[in-house]
Specification:
The structure holds two protein chains of two kinds. Chain A is built from 13 helices and no strands. Chain A is an all-alpha fold. Chain B is mostly helical. Chain B has two domains: 59 residues; 239 residues, MetI-like fold (Orthogonal Bundle), CATH 1.10.3720. Chain B contains 14 helices and two strands, in the order αββααααααααααααα. The longest helix of chain B has 59 residues. Chain B is flat, with a radius of gyration of 28 Å. The relative contact order of chain B is 0.12. Classes of the chains: A mainly alpha, B mainly alpha.
């Protein structure tokens, strides 16, 4: 066996080990979910009598249909607005280069590393005074604000790399700024916009802190927030909890596998630029 | 005649240029004013739900307030408590300890794994690996927390494997034991971030010119030498990104800890994010919670800015 061949095998072995390690918790959840509800399964044991009905039970007791609808509503509220206003701001800073834009850009950058816990306390009282507490708006509105640093940063990075001749040519054809934005720049920004939409959808879907602080009723939360409440209620019933956790994971994982190329490139670029 | 046509043609063109530049100037002026209108919605959302709470956080931190009764001005007393109360100090200490698991291990292990895997990433196995390794980035951390609580529990997979290889004596409830709870939370962090770092570093390594490796092999450099003199300097930027992302994740850990241990046993795994939450919403110490929040935000900046500076300095030179 040559040295090159041996190093290839080591690499492949390492890769398989890493894949196994990544899948371990999912496999463990899956085998636990198939045990009889209320029993104490052990590790990765495959049950003698798989209880597929646990998934149906978990779906019913957790009101999975309602939670799913609630999450979709929150995504539909937060993501389109985030993408539109971040694109507009990125256009103003990257293509139009408005006066004072540098300062505004730095102001947005300031929020890029902000942990949500840093402002959750005043956010609670602000949302309380606005009268949005315990509604989906309590998650949607703050999320739009919290997505702005990344969203603006991301879209500006796209517009700044667009050739200035594009803008000049449209101007000579008599386009005003609004037409320049919608007619010329937005169609060309499609890939950046799609990536931003994917990333903000994932972040909204998985948002936990805002959900547990600002919305008391699990049925009006995101999937992640509702899962927290489900754990509180069924924490000792391992098979049912595992089945519920898998059901809550399922939609995001399915979407991820369908759009994996877009997801991975968005996540990679998103972190590289951020 | 011909002469005149040429001249007038030139004039036309000159006039066209003049009017074009007039159009462009007007367009630019228009843009400078109307451009601000494009910024307004984003600034409004950001100002209302980030900047204003940020300022308010600081304001709250100077008061003693239970959230209901009138607040009482206490100056910097809350900050003094954050830096002198042994529990709060240990909470900050835990955040730094978590950096070992959230940052150091994923980045170092990711570098090793990626440089070994570099040769096999092509083809199907590489594509499958990428998809699987990125999975933890997509699933909610809450679900990861539930899954790992189960894997690390008394009857969980970890203890099962340990018993099977004859290490039954070390099995325990990893998240419930004072000695192992924080490292066990750290292991969950490794799971979340290792795949991300590995793939990011792999992408960086795939951009390195293969000629560099061939040249170093001709010079008789070994794998270790190659790693330190070629691979490591070439992925400097990617390392910077990994460290930045993982340090922020360590300092602001919340979801995983909330689900897997709720800060326990005792305060063994209490982290700043969870402490802020409990102080403000359970202990009604809004001022103290806000002071801790301000300290946390400053801490993140103090840790992240030098990394950014270090990475960018490398690019400029």
């Amino acid at each position: 066996m040559t040295a090159a061949r041996r190093s290839r095998l080591t690499g492949a072995g390492l890769l398989l080990a890493l894949i196994g390690w990544t899948l371990l918790p999912f496999a463990s959840l899956f085998t636990a979910a198939l045990h009889k509800s209320g029993t104490y399964p052990s590790g990765l044991d495959w049950p003698a009598n798989p209880q597929w009905g646990n998934f149906v039970d978990a779906f019913n007791v957790a009101n999975m249909g309602t939670i799913f609808k609630s999450s979709v509503l929150i995504v539909l509220g937060a993501v389109p607005i985030t993408v539109v206003i971040a694109t507009m701001a990125g256009f103003a800073l990257g293509a139009l280069r408005v006066s004072g834009g540098r300062f505004i850009f730095l102001l947005f950058l300031l929020g890029l590393t902000l942990p949500f816990e840093g402002i959750i306390v005043p956010l609670y009282y602000e949302i309380l005074h606005m009268g949005f507490l315990d509604t989906r708006w309590a998650i949607i509105l703050p999320l739009i604000g919290l997505f702005m640093p990344f969203g603006v940063f991301w879209m500006r990075a796209h517009f700044v790399n667009m050739p200035n001749e594009l803008t000049e040519a449209a101007r000579i054809d008599g386009a005003n700024t609004w037409q320049l934005f919608w007619g010329v720049h937005v169609p060309l920004a499609r890939p950046a916009v799609v990536s931003l939409a994917i990333l903000t959808t994932v972040w909204t879907w998985n948002q936990f802190l805002l959900a547990i602080v600002l919305v008391n009723n699990p049925l009006e939360r995101t999937m992640a927030g509702a899962l927290g409440a489900f754990q509180g209620d069924y924490g000792t019933n391992i098979p049912l909890l595992s089945a519920g956790a898998l059901l809550i994971l399922a939609p995001m994982i399915i979407i991820y596998f369908v759009f994996q190329r877009q997801f991975i490139s968005a996540l990679l670029q998103g972190s590289l630029k951020g | 005649m011909t002469d005149a046509t040429v001249t007038s043609g030139r004039d036309d063109r000159a006039a066209g240029r003049a009017s074009a530049s007039r159009v462009l100037r007007r367009g630019a002026r228009d843009a400078r004013l109307r451009g601000w209108l494009f910024l307004v919605p984003a600034l409004a959302a950001y100002g209302l739900f980030v900047l204003w709470p940020l300022v308010t956080s600081f304001r709250y931190s100077l008061f003693k307030w239970d959230g209901v009764a009138p607040a009482q001005w206490v100056g910097l007393a809350n900050y003094k408590t954050v830096f002198s109360n042994p529990v709060l100090l240990s909470v900050l200490g835990h955040a730094f300890q978590l950096m070992i698991y959230f940052s150091a291990i994923p980045v170092i292990l990711g570098l090793i794994v990626a440089s070994v895997m570099r040769r096999v990433v092509g083809g199907r196995i590489g594509a499958v690996a990428r998809t699987v390794l990125f999975l933890p980035q997509v699933v909610p951390l809450v679900a990861a927390g539930i899954a790992w609580s189960w894997v690390l529990s008394t009857n969980g997979a970890v203890n099962q494997v340990l018993s099977a290889v004859g290490l039954g004596s070390v099995t325990r409830a990893w998240l419930g034991d004072f000695g192992t709870a924080l490292p066990a939370v750290g292991v969950i962090g490794v799971w979340v971030l290792l795949g991300f770092c590995t793939v990011l570093l792999l992408v960086g390594m795939s951009k390195i010119d293969p000629a560099l490796y061939e040249a170093s092999q001709l010079d008789g450099a070994g794998a270790i030498r190659e790693f330190f003199s070629i691979t490591l300097p070439s992925v400097r930027q990617e390392i910077g990104v990994c460290v930045t992302v993982t340090v922020i994740a360590a300092l602001s850990a919340f979801d995983i800890v909330y689900i897997s241990t709720s800060g326990g046993p005792g305060d063994a795994t209490m982290v700043p994010g969870l402490e802020i939450y409990q102080l403000a919403f359970y202990n009604r110490e809004v001022g103290l919670a806000s002071a801790l929040a301000v300290v946390l935000m400053v801490l993140v900046l103090v840790c992240v800015l030098p990394i950014q500076w270090f990475v960018n300095r490398g690019n400029a030179s």
